[in-house]
């Protein structure tokens, strides 16, 4: 009986393992054959953080399809959302009691920088919408504005993180701010790379 029970248990474990492997293979195969997912992965190769790029855009594959313009629009929109979320997070931290003077100062400066980043990224989204039918010099003008604003937003995000460098600010506040700002900076950097690639197609 013990042997039969052991055999049954092993069979069930093997079957469960086989099902997991098979399910993962099916998911992988589906991702490989999905044109939109493949387009996103290929496009993200030009970015500095391709894994972050794919992770942040894959959920919007059905919207992006294989459109370079929609890819850029989505990348910018993701950057705006994450920057807005980080802005709200920093704003809450500035209201904490017991902050050291250096921490409060760094948070206020960061909030200003993130606010500027949100504004510039939002301008970039609006600028891209104006480019729907733009061609030639008009396209180049709008694209130049867009690239300038996204680049400036990236600088804002970097400036915020610089305020938490060194040993003057330590602990959970520094760790949480830098983690969030790093993610925002990465998606913004990726958006800029995709913007540059899109600009080069015209």
From TrEMBL:
InterPro entries: Invertase/methylesterase_inhib, Pectinesterase_inhib_dom, PME_Inhibitor. Residues 35-194 form the Pectinesterase inhibitor domain. SMART domains: PMEI. It comes from the Eukaryota. GO terms for molecular function: pectinesterase inhibitor activity. CDD domains: PMEI-like_3. Keywords: Signal. Residues 1-23 form the signal peptide. Pfam families: PMEI. PANTHER family: PECTINESTERASE INHIBITOR 7, PECTINESTERASE INHIBITOR-LIKE. This is Pectinesterase inhibitor domain-containing protein. It comes from Sesamum calycinum.
